[in-house]
Design goal:
Layout: H1 2-21, H2 27-48, H3 57-81, H4 89-96, H5 99-110, H6 117-134, H7 143-169, H8 175-201, H9 207-235, H10 237-240, H11 243-259, H12 265-288
Helix pairs in contact: 1-4, 1-9, 1-11, 2-3, 2-8, 2-9, 3-7, 3-8, 4-7, 4-11, 4-12, 5-6, 5-7, 5-12, 6-12
Length: 296
């Protein structure tokens, strides 16, 4: 259980690290850096465990798809959403917690999993919670916040889609091997876009931003993946899924305390409805997707 608390803390703080890092680098460069650092950590763990990366091209192709859909795109979207003038790290974390809802929706479509009426109700309830957290219908929304919120939700949708893809194409691969291949291929895929973005916009790194990048990549990506898969292996997916609920609470708290972000009751109300919807779906999700988890 201590591992779960640590993992929730790491992922909760990761939204703050993104918020700080993106002030000095283009979003796609932040995503590329975190993937590169995370891949180095995972490769070291893989080596210490005496595990090897696969040699066949088909597995690498599937891991590359996972890398693009499950890391490169959502990491870039989250960083883009947290740019100055868009949305807070706290709201980003709450919206990103909708990942299991999208996992259920894509599972029903791509894997032809049937949702019982109570599960369909949970899906609709959770999506309603996302809308409330985003302030749908509120007068304080502007074009910047809408695009930022859309990016955060799109990132959650990418995570949900990768769960269905992994269930179909990577279920026979050692989880740590698949995770390493995913993050490594994501880093490679982001090299050119990140290089172009940096050459166009440049970087403005301070000591604080460098530290945030290092923590985001090595701890928030590399170490967090290791903790996540070990928690699933030792505690089971049902217990390990608790991190999905706790991480946004940590993110909201650190965003308010350390970044001075505005505390909004709609985030709490929407987050609670989202969690309630996930609870109605969770029994099915954890049985069918032992590796599914929220990853910021």
């Amino acid at each position: 259980m201590r591992r779960l608390v640590l993992l929730a803390g790491i992922w909760g703080w990761s939204f703050l690290f993104i918020k700080v890092a993106v002030k000095g680098m283009p979003p796609v460069a932040v995503a590329c850096t975190r993937c590169t650092l995370g891949a180095l950590v995972l490769l070291a763990v893989l080596r210490s465990a005496r595990l090897r990366l696969p040699a066949d091209l088909r597995t690498w192709r599937d891991m590359a798809v996972m890398g693009v859909l499950g890391s490169a795109i959502p990491f870039s979207l989250l960083a883009w959403a947290e740019q100055p003038g868009r949305i807070s790290s706290a709201l980003t974390s709450v919206l990103n917690a909708s990942t299991p809802l999208f996992a259920a929706a894509f599972g029903a479509v791509l894997l032809r999993e049937r949702l019982r009426p109570v599960q369909l109700g949970g899906l609709l309830l959770g999506l309603g919670g996302v809308a409330i957290a985003a302030g749908l219908g509120g007068g304080d929304l502007n074009s910047s916040s809408v695009t930022g919120e859309s990016a955060a939700v799109a990132a959650a949708a990418c995570y949900g889609l990768t769960f269905a893809f992994a269930q179909r194409r990577l279920s026979g691969i050692e989880p740590m091997t698949a995770a390493t291949g995913q993050v490594l291929t994501a880093a490679i895929a982001l090299l050119v876009p990140a290089g172009l973005a940096v050459s166009d916009r440049g970087v403005s790194l301070t000591f604080t931003r460098v530290v945030a990048l290092l923590l985001l990549g090595m701890v928030g990506t590399g170490v967090a993946y290791v903790l996540n898969y070990r928690s699933i292996a030792e505690l089971g997916p049902t217990t390990a899924s608790v991190v999905t609920y706790v991480a946004p609470v940590v993110a909201v708290a650190v965003g308010v305390v350390f970044l001075g972000e505005e505390f909004q009751l709609r985030m709490i109300a929407g987050g609670l409805l989202t969690v309630a919807g996930i609870v109605l779906l969770r029994g099915r999700l954890v049985r069918r997707r032992a590796q599914a988890a929220m990853v910021p």
